[in-house]
Amino acid sequence: MFASDSNCGMIVQIYEVTTGAEARALGAMGVDHIGVLVGDGSFPREQTIEQAREIFAAVRSHSKALLLSLSDDVDLIARITHELRPAILHLGAAPEQLSPAQLRTLKSEFPQISLMRSIPVVDETSIALARSYEGIANWLLLDSYESGDRQVGALGVTHSWELDRRIIGSVRIPVIIAGGLGPENVQDAIRAARPAGVDSKTKTDRDDGTHTKDLEKVSAFVAAARKAKDGVT
Fold first, then answer.
1. Is residue 2 part of a domain?
2. Which residue, 121, 140, 173, is CA-closest to 3?
3. Rounded to whole angstroms, how far apart are CA atoms 97 and 150?
4. CA angle 170-174-179, nearest 5°?
5. Average pLDDT in the 57-82 region?
6. Per-residue pLDDT tens for 84-143?
7. Which of 75, 188, 201, 207 sits in a 20 to 30 Å window from 105, CA-based?
């Protein structure tokens, strides 16, 4: 079984969108979740509120705008969320920096906005961590993690899809898997983990170091993800 709000069954989520033109192109490809990293400059490549507003304005109605925050400053997160009002607020700070209780505070402040929480896929403790967000998060994103990082993900490397599947089986929250996924391996990941959706950042970037999207790679990723879903029951 797969849980999804996509007309095509498998949610496809793409980061980091940096321009309105990219957002329009991804929407035309059928990308469901279009993600923008927003902040105050504490992390590399963060978009300002003004830049993010322009990008979100270009998101087509059938897609959802995601605001990704890597911050552990709840007041900053709330201010940015209030300004942008995304469909989904994605919180990517490391687990020890942003607790379930803090997410509950954000949920009460923005009841109409879905919350997505990044979960580092490391070992057995990842299962308990994922379950601690039951009744709080609307989505979980399972991602690779390097000990000591302030944020989860953006490493461009895979992790255990078998552990992903165990986490997915242990929660009632829709789960998107991430971590080094691209057109060449997303089908294997879907078949192994059976998620509600898949996420790509690094493997659908251009190879020139600009962190802008390679639209051909994104198109191939979308096609591969949807094909894999059609072939799995």
1. no
2. 173
3. 8
4. 90
5. 96
6. 999 999 999 999 999 999 999 999 999 999 999 999 999 999 999 999 999 999 999 999
7. 201
> Any bridge partners for residue 224, and if so which?
none
Within a domain: 84: yes
Q: How far is CA 138 from the centre of its chain?
A: 12
Using DSSP, state whether 20 is helix, strand or coil: helix
Radius of gyration of the chain from Cα atoms? 16
List pLDDT tens digits, range 189-214.
999 999 999 999 999 999 988 889 99
> Is residue 3 in a domain?
no
Residue 6: inside a domain, yes or no? no
Least confident of 7-11, 177-181, 193-197, 212-216: 7-11
Q: Which residues contact 103 (CB under 8 A, 6 or more apart)?
A: 91, 115, 117, 133, 136, 137
How many structural domains does the chain have?
1
Burial of 214 (0-12, 13-18, 19+ CB in 10 A): middle
Contact assessment for residue 102 and residue 79, using Cβ atoms and an 8 Å cutoff: no
Give the three-state DSSP class for 30. Answer: coil
The CATH number covering residue 222 comes to 3.20.20.70
